[in-house]
């Protein structure tokens, strides 16, 4: 899929350096995750080799974002529920890269037979919450003091989108 100058494609092992860099920006900026351990390209290569479906957004030959979804739970009852993630490089934020990735993640999840996508977003991450809303996700609730980041309690917002027959 191509949107303006952004192309969305499946991540390849060779994208691991760029994906790790973008993920680490999200960790360092303290806006996208409770994670604090920086990731290595080897960490990302293992995820790709393990079958995790990741997508990348490419602009002018450079990876400027990535997204994907993973099973919400290994319990059979939740087999149709996925937890999505979207990360955009600092220099590409605000340029609709996240929207292009989100459209593709939702489409892939629906094609895979999922009936719901969800995410837990740091309450201070207004851009990610707005992205979810723009793509039809609804805010289900807020986890108060969901985790600590740099010693401070942070709230998280739970968003969900019903897919396929569940959306009817």
Describe the structure.
The chain is an alpha+beta fold. The chain contains 4 helices and 8 strands; from the N terminus they run ββααβββαβαββ. The protein has helices spanning 16-29, 41-49, 97-111, 126-134; strands spanning 2-3, 6-10, 54-59, 62-71, 81-88, 116-122, 138-149, 152-162. An 8-stranded mixed beta sheet has the order 1-2-3-4-5-6-8-7. A hairpin with a 2-residue loop joins strand 1 (2-3) and strand 2 (6-10). It starts with a strand and ends in a 6-residue tail after the last strand.
What tags apply to this protein structure?
single chain, 168 residues, alpha+beta, Aminopeptidase, 8-stranded mixed β-sheet, 4 helices, 36% strand, globular
Mean pLDDT over the residues: 94
Q: How many structural domains are formed by the residues? A: 1
* Corresponding CATH superfamily: Gcn5-related N-acetyltransferase (GNAT)
CA radius of gyration is 15 Å
The N- to C-terminal Cα distance equals: 26 Å
CATH topology: Aminopeptidase
Which regions are unreliable across 5 or more consecutive residues at pLDDT < 50? Answer: none
| Helix and strand composition category | alpha+beta
Report the strand count.
Answer: 8
Number of helices: 4
- The strand order across the widest sheet is 1-2-3-4-5-6-8-7
Relative strand content = 35-45%
CATH architecture: 3-Layer(aba) Sandwich
What would you say about this model in short?
The protein has 168 residues and is of the alpha+beta class.
């Amino acid at each position: 899929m191509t949107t303006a100058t952004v192309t969305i494609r499946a991540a390849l092992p060779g994208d691991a350096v760029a994906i790790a860099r973008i993920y680490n920006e999200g960790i360092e900026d303290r806006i996208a995750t409770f994670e604090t351990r920086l990731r290595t390209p080897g960490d990302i290569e293992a995820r790709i080799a393990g079958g995790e479906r990741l997508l990348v957004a490419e602009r002018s030959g450079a990876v400027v974002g990535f997204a994907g979804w993973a099973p919400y739970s290994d319990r059979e009852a939740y087999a149709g529920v996925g937890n999505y993630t979207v990360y955009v490089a600092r220099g590409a934020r605000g340029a609709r890269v996240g929207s292009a990735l989100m459209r593709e993640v939702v489409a892939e999840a629906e094609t895979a037979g999922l009936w719901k996508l969800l995410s837990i977003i740091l309450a201070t991450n207004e851009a990610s919450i707005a992205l979810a809303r723009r793509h039809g996700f609804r805010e289900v609730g807020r986890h108060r003091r969901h985790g600590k980041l740099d010693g401070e309690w942070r709230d998280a917002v739970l968003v969900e989108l019903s897919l396929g027959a569940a959306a009817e």
